[in-house]
């Protein structure tokens, strides 16, 4: 089992400050234009991660990027991607409330040389690939920043892809040329500005797998131009000690010609995983609605009020349902069985309250449940 790896330094710059429905406890991460804080939902008393962008430190184009990140995050609903709860802003800041992944990042695991069993490695790789399958085929999103810092683990050691700050929608017929992301994980076609698509994520995924297995970068140089030459020209060297099927998977993802590089279906169908075909992407159905209602009842919401707020698409109620769903799901899984990392279990979809409940059919289901609970 992966040990707890979440050991960020505590910062009390926002000590006891309340923002919206959240009380900020301590700093747990930072990006180029934001800080991320561990926070508590003041009504539910449950933890979230609160991403805060200072408006006076953002350019107009950066504000547009934040809005795009919110738009993309709020459209995603996948068990291997960090859950989006809500966004709001005040005079000084823009806030994004999202799932708190308590076991930290893959980067921390690698930097501290924490050993992993082969089955754990396979499960991590499979879960990342499953999330990419969802992004590429269901949402037509190119992440553009797949790297260990953006691979998180929740309380049950389940993989969660994070940070959609550089992500973009792939529109049919449009060619993406923007250079972005981390150079060590950038694909040859992105560096050259030749135009790229979903396979730029596959390259980054290949680099990540290589780093996970070999504990070093496949291409590295402190001089950025020399690094680019390595990415363009040098052959990938995978140690002979690496499992031959895994080595083939990595090589297929690090093919310099994007036309010959694996796509996400080829990745998931690879014999390394030992499964006959790509598993279908399933929607996240919520199986614990009664528990969600009970929890909301305990903090003062009647079933009628819950139904009213859901029908009106109230953002705060939507956020509370999402937060409760994630925590109830983890609590049930933790109490029923010990967590074992394996491919067959990692591909099961984590139960969650579908925010499709905000559409007409969903409202009907929610209201019917409210009436049954209230009887």
Indicate the CATH architecture of the largest domain: Orthogonal Bundle
**SS strand fraction:** 5-15%
Count up the helices: 13
How many structural domains are formed by the residues? 3
Q: Into which percent range does the helicity of residues fall?
A: 25-40%
The coarse overall form would be globular
What is the number of strand segments? 10
CATH class of the largest domain: Mainly Alpha
Strand order of the largest sheet: 1-2-3-4-6-5
CATH topology of the largest domain: Transferase(Phosphotransferase), domain 1
State the fourth-level CATH superfamily of the largest domain: Transferase(Phosphotransferase) domain 1
Mean pLDDT: 83
Radius of gyration over all CA atoms, rounded: 21 Å
Largest sheet: 6 strands, antiparallel
Features:
375 residues, alpha+beta, Phosphorylase Kinase, domain 1, Transferase(Phosphotransferase), domain 1, 3 domains, six-stranded antiparallel β-sheet, two-stranded antiparallel sheet, 40% helix, 13% strand, globular, disordered N terminus, disordered C terminus
Write up what this structure looks like.
ATP binds at residues 51, 99-101, 149-150, 163. GO terms for molecular function: ATP binding; protein serine/threonine kinase activity. Keywords: ATP-binding, Kinase, Nucleotide-binding, Serine/threonine-protein kinase, Transferase. Residues 22-273 form the Protein kinase domain. A hairpin with a 4-residue loop joins strand 2 and strand 3 (35-41). Helix 3 (118-138) runs antiparallel to helix 5 (199-214). Mean pLDDT is 83; it is low at 1-15, 276-286 and 337-375. Helices cover 40% and strands 13% of the residues. It has 375 residues and is α+β, with helices and mostly antiparallel strands. A 6-stranded antiparallel β-sheet has the order 1-2-3-4-6-5. The chain has a two-stranded antiparallel ribbon with strand order 7-10. It is globular, with a radius of gyration of 21 Å. The protein folds into 3 domains: 18-98, Phosphorylase Kinase, domain 1 (2-Layer Sandwich), CATH 3.30.200.20; 106-273, Transferase(Phosphotransferase) domain 1 (Transferase(Phosphotransferase), domain 1); 289-374, no CATH class.
């Amino acid at each position: 089992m992966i040990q707890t790896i979440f050991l960020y330094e505590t910062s009390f710059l926002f000590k006891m400050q309340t923002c919206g429905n959240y009380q900020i406890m301590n700093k747990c991460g930072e990006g180029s234009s934001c800080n991320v804080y561990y926070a508590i939902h003041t009504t539910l008393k449950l933890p979230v991660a609160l991403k805060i962008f200072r408006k006076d430190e953002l350019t107009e184009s950066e504000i547009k990027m934040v809005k795009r990140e919110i738009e993309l995050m709020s459209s995603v609903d996948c068990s291997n991607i960090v859950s989006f709860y809500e966004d709001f802003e005040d005079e000084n800041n823009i806030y994004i409330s999202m799932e708190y992944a308590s076991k930290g990042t893959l980067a921390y695991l690698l930097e501290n040389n924490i050993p992993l069993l082969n089955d754990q490695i396979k499960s991590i790789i499979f879960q990342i690939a499953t999330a990419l399958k969802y992004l590429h085929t269901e949402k037509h999103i190119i992440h553009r920043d797949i790297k260990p810092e953006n691979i998180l683990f929740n309380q049950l050691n389940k993989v969660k892809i994070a940070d959609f700050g550089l992500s973009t929608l792939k529109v049919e017929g449009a060619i993406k040329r923007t250079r972005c992301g981390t150079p060590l994980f950038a694909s040859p076609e992105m560096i050259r500005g030749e135009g790229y698509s979903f396979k730029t994520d596959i390259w980054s995924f290949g680099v990540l797998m290589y780093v996970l297995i070999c504990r070093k970068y496949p291409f590295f140089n402190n001089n950025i131009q020399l690094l680019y030459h390595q990415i363009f020209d040098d052959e990938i060297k995978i140690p002979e000690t690496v499992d031959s099927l895994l080595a083939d998977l990595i090589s297929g993802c690090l093919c310099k010609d994007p036309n010959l590089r694996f796509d996400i279906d080829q990745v998931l169908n690879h014999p390394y995983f030992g499964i006959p075909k790509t598993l279908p992407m399933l929607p996240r159905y919520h199986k614990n609605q009664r528990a969600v209602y009970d929890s909301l009842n305990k903090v003062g919401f009647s079933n009628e009020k819950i139904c009213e707020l859901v029908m009106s698409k109230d953002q705060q109620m939507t956020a509370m349902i999402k937060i409760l769903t994630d925590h109830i799901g983890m609590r049930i899984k933790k109490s029923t069985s010990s967590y074992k990392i394996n491919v067959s279990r990692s591909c099961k979809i984590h139960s969650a309250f579908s925010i499709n409940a905000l559409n007409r059919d969903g409202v009907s289901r929610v209201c019917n449940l409210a009436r049954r609970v209230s009887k």
